[in-house]
Amino acid sequence: MTYAEAQDLGWKGRDIIDFANWMNDLDEHLVRFCGMTHEDLPDFDFAGSFSGDVEPEEVALEMIEEIDL
């Protein structure tokens, strides 16, 4: 989800910043695990995982598992 999409969904201030930081953490894990970022992989429910307090590392592993890397 982009900053603009988050705003469209009604996210404000700290939520957007926290989500952006969470996505950066996710990308760091993805790069470490498979050399790609979320932009290189199929779409995923990032906002739902963030809202559900799922750790970025867990999401990265799930994403990789789903595409069988």
Tertiary shape: elongated
String of helices and strands? HHHH
The largest sheet is: none
The N- to C-terminal Cα distance equals 23 Å
Count of beta strands = 0
Strand content: under 5%
List the helices and strands and how they pair.
Elements: H1 3-8, H2 13-34, H3 46-51, H4 56-67
Helix pairs in contact: 2-4
Could you describe the 3D structure shown?
The protein is mainly α and 69 residues long. The protein has one domain. It has four helices and no strands. It is elongated and about 35 Å long. The two termini are 23 Å apart. The model has no long low-confidence stretch (mean pLDDT 89).
Compact overview of the structure:
The chain is an all-alpha fold and 69 residues long.
